[in-house]
Automatic annotation (TrEMBL), chains A, B:
Name the UniProt record assigns to this protein: Sodium/hydrogen exchanger
Lineage: Eukaryota, Metazoa, Chordata, Craniata, Vertebrata
Span of domain Cation/H+ exchanger transmembrane: 17-421
GO MF, any single term: sodium:proton antiporter activity
Transmembrane segments: 12-29, 35-56, 68-85, 97-120, 132-153, 165-185, 206-228, 240-268, 289-312, 332-359, 371-392, 398-421
NCBIfam families in the record: b_cpa1
Organism, scientific name: Anhinga anhinga
Family, as annotated: Belongs to the monovalent cation:proton antiporter 1 (CPA1) transporter (TC 2.A.36) family.
Record-linked InterPro entries: Cation/H_exchanger_CPA1 (IPR018422), Cation/H_exchanger_TM (IPR006153), NaH_exchanger (IPR004709), NHE_CaM-bd (IPR032103)
Gene3D superfamilies: 6.10.140.1330, 6.10.250.1040, 6.10.250.2020
Length: 590, 590
């Protein structure tokens, strides 16, 4: 037996296997995941595992290594989040998200920090030795809303798209802020005196870390898209490039002390569109599937490790401090409490929302506000950051407080948020995908609004969106896409996708026919063309031609003016109905 | 800049990126890969990289770590090979493959070892200090035909299926033999005296290592298949299990000093059938795609590292020894040369083939024999094994000889084998997939032969295949498959696959129809059924019913006796023709 030789890969594989089997186990009992979020169950499994290890070895189980977390477990989850981020709602609410992520987080950090410093002044608690700076350092890490935990819970409760993107986008983008604040306070802790120059440098760093991350991400994303132009002959390694470039992008950003999370999201969102057009359909399935799989495994491992790491003797249980931390960080209510209940209902979120609502037509309701505040779960990011703290005599207290906050938010908030959403009757996500008709109307309105903005001289989001689209089709696509001369509109792509899906369904039920085809087309032609010409249209070349015209017209809808025509789109009545109508019509004509 | 922090993953990612970009580069010039095998080009890139590193650092570039090779790079390639191994030709030729792998390899090891010992006795070469045991140890590693190199070359030249499986199967299965011989001679080298008991124990070890590997592999394979029964609700981690179980299987086998390669092949071949039936179509695409991608990257990295490791000062250039090693190991001709050209044409392969041909109806032609002998490429396995040798004063000579043999076989044999195959007019692989008709005939003959063997009391391969099939459907499928009550024959599956493919093609050209369907069915019915009934068959339930009957009948073809009916299968005439015929017929009837 030669265990030493294979130990490292063997143990890694076993952990992943355990995580996957735990996942299967939960899903065998269908009722369990609908009551308790998976993250809680996984932490519970981790606690049991940690207990077993602790019992057997009689020493604390190994703590999750911060390097392993930040270098190997976090990137797949963030990549998955960025790649599948619905870009339209994200960019529509980018202002609100940034406001919450930047102003809200800073607010929280200082709110929690000063409040805890206040608590430390109470002599009964024996905490006078914790300085303000240490409190701020601690609050900077405890204020970081964790995208992994948020995603794990919000994926299961299906709130409406806007609310989801607000909570989730904030949890992703606040990384840049918390990283800066954390590093700033950490270096302040080690400095003998702090000058005002240092503070200004800290403020400047925000922009460097955030915008630098975006730039690194976009650079790698564009390179990835450019690379996939040349993979036509070796389809098999296409999916690799998506993963390689995003990972390199994350590592590069981390190397330059920029925000890796922001970078990988920019990279994924930037490359998605071009990569998707360049790579084959099967490659794309692999990319999507593998990304989901990988992030799911990382996610599972993180929660199990969280549970395992909780057990042990790393903690100092000063209950007043811990309890007040939980209370202060209970979602984003810190400001509310900081102002010592003077403003009672105006928490950080509420004040911010007031400003947001003033400048937006689409207001955020008070229910939504509550869910945003309540959805601020903490997770493995705080946990890893607290272990990275420089050694000082109260580190174990901070570790204990962080552990309790994480367990509290994941268990209590995570488990009660679903009943709360039900209770408040928060608007849910619509079950069905938008119909083609809706999509056309949305697109039509976009163009209309861009035109109105153009005429009124107001440079709003539609104006910029239109300019970006123009730049994209004029320059970017020509460089990045392999077949740039056939820009297909998303509606045509959707139509193709639906047709493909339908074809597979037909094949599976054995209804596939080789006879008269393309009902939407037949439907358009049947009023104008005689019977014989109908059969001519079966010629694939002609059909392709028509489809291309269709694609071009849809795409250039704004540029060519009144080319919009309701006959150039597939109808929305039931396809089976179509087929029957055609049959009846043909019988009659014969 | 904090490079230290991200160094390990950053450098790994960069190496993989380099490998992938090199692959893209070769394929940009279409003519290059058709002349030079990719493996040669990759080694060449590695040599350049090694030269650059050597030039910049002025010391030998890092050598490929044996642990990295055996634990991380080799398993994906072997898994891919095992998973996509065509099981029918493999089992049909298993006897021949085993004969080549076991007897042929032992023959080669002793042939090369004794010949080299003979060379060492020539005083002019200054090699008298290399003992017989050291020569045998060296020959045991240099005789290992490398599946990675063989696969890389033979995938490009498309020889006929049987020849391919013989060369490739031998290169995979000889791992068990070379591992045993290598470890045997290594321990003999360290022992003061060798008793006959040790030799017998060595012979016994063959069976333990080989059969143990198969058992470990099958155990893990069955467990994997069983696990995928329960993944219905979490499709997203299905592909993971295939990889996790195969890797665990490899590591477990290595841990117990069994043959990891044999284990992973048994695991992959064992689980494939059941896993494929259990997991979803998209999961399966991901598994296949990712396996190919991973093995392709490993492959690329191995050849690049081979090139990099070649540069440096690890070598002792005793040219006579090296040249004779190349000559002796030039394919499997060692025996021929060992017998000092007495038997001139009877190389090891030829003698073995003589025996094989006596007991087989399907003889191996002399051309095939030559290609088998010539296709014995050496690669990274030899290279890793030679670095694992215990330190002794002639190790550098062995390293030099191994490097030269590898470069010689990969470059000279790899580049000339394609022209040779053309020159000898070796039977090539047929371009088209077997038609449905052929498949039916093959299956029919299988049943016929099983029946004949049954009656004549001869327990041949068909008898055992039939018994295995019975055991499989009676017990294994019920345990391992989720929906075991619908065993579909491979022909029905093929038909479904073709229909699905056709449907996608139709959808892509826009010819998808919702009208009268399933031409094969219409074709069958049109002689018997009147027009109205034809339209009734459009009902999906009825169709499903018919398909199920079709599936069952095909499956139980042998058990139900004369149920074989040429009308129950899709015809082979052109589908468009069908559609036209149907149209004409309907026009007439109206």
């Amino acid at each position: 037996l030669d265990y030493q030789h294979v130990q490292v890969p063997f143990e890694i594989t076993l952990w992943i296997m355990l995580a996957s089997l735990a996942k299967i186990g939960f899903h065998l009992y269908n009722k369990l995941p609908s009551v308790v979020p998976e993250s809680c169950l996984l932490i519970f499994v981790g606690l049991i595992m940690g207990g077993i290890i602790y019992g057997l070895n009689d020493k604390s189980p190994p703590v999750m290594d911060s390097d392993i977390f930040f270098l190997y477990l976090l990137p797949p989850i963030v990549l998955d989040a960025g790649y599948f981020m619905p870009s339209r709602p994200f960019f529509e609410n980018i202002g609100t998200i940034l406001l919450y992520a930047v102003v809200g987080t800073i607010w929280n950090v200082f709110g929690i920090g000063f409040s805890l410093y206040g608590i430390c002044q109470v002599t009964a608690f024996h905490l006078q030795d914790v300085s303000l700076l240490h409190n701020l350092l601690f609050s900077s890490l405890i204020a970081a809303v964790d995208p992994v935990a948020v995603l794990a819970v919000f994926e299961e409760i299906h709130v409406n798209e806007k609310l989801h993107i607000l909570v989730f986008g904030e949890s992703l983008l606040n990384d840049a802020v918390t990283v800066v604040l954390y590093k700033l306070f950490r270096s302040f802790c080690e400095m003998p005196t702090i000058t005002s120059v240092d503070v200004f440098a800290g403020v400047g760093k925000f922009f460097v870390v955030g915008i630098g991350g975006v730039l690194v991400g976009l650079t790698f994303g564009m390179t990835a898209a450019f690379t996939t132009r040349f993979t036509k002959d070796i389809r098999v390694i296409e999916p690799l490039f998506v993963f390689l470039y995003s990972y390199l992008c994350y590592l590069t950003a981390e190397m330059f002390h920029l925000s890796g999370i922001v970078a990988i999201i920019a990279c994924a969102m930037g490359m998605k569109r071009y990569v998707e057009a360049n790579i084959s359909l099967k490659s794309h399935t692999t990319v999507k599937y593998f990304m989901k799989m990988w992030s799911s495994v990382s996610d599972t491992l993180i929660f199990i490790f969280l549970g395992v790491s909780t057990i042990g003797e790393n903690h100092e249980w000063n209950w007043p401090y811990i309890c007040f931390t939980v209370i202060f960080s209970l979602s984003n209510f810190s400001f509310c409490l900081m102002c010592s209940c003077l403003l009672s209902c105006f928490s950080g979120v509420l004040v911010l929302t007031f400003f947001v609502n003033r400048f937006h037509v689409n207001t955020i309701t008070s229910k939504d506000q509550f869910i945003i505040a309540y959805g601020g779960l903490r997770g493995a990011i705080c946990f890893s950051l607290v272990f990275l703290l420089p050694d000082f005599h109260r580190k174990k207290l901070f570790i204990a407080a962080t552990t309790v906050v994480i367990l509290f938010t994941v268990f209590v908030q995570g488990m009660t948020i679903r009943p709360l959403v039900d209770l408040l009757a928060v608007k849910r996500k619509r079950e069905s995908a938008p119909t083609v008709g809706e999509q056309i109307h949305i697109r039509f309105l976009d163009h209309l609004l861009a035109g109105i903005e153009d005429i009124s001289g107001h440079w709003g989001q539609y104006y910029w969106k239109d300019k970006l689209e123009y730049f994209n089709s004029k320059y970017l696509q020509k460089i990045l896409l392999r077949e740039y001369d056939q820009p297909k509109s998303s509606i045509v792509l959707l139509h193709e996708k639906l047709e493909r899906k339908h074809a597979i369904e037909l094949a599976e039920t054995g209804q596939l026919g080789h006879g008269p085809s393309h009902p939407s087309l037949l439907n358009n032609d049947r009023t104008a063309l005689p019977e014989k010409k109908l059969e001519d249209t079966l010629n694939p070349d002609v059909l392709e031609n028509i489809q291309e015209i269709l694609a071009r017209n849809l795409y250039r809808i704004r540029r060519t003016g009144p080319a919009y025509n309701r006959h150039t789109l597939p109808g929305e009545t039931e396809p089976v109905e179509h087929a029957k109508e055609i049959l009846i019509l043909r019988h009659k004509s014969l």
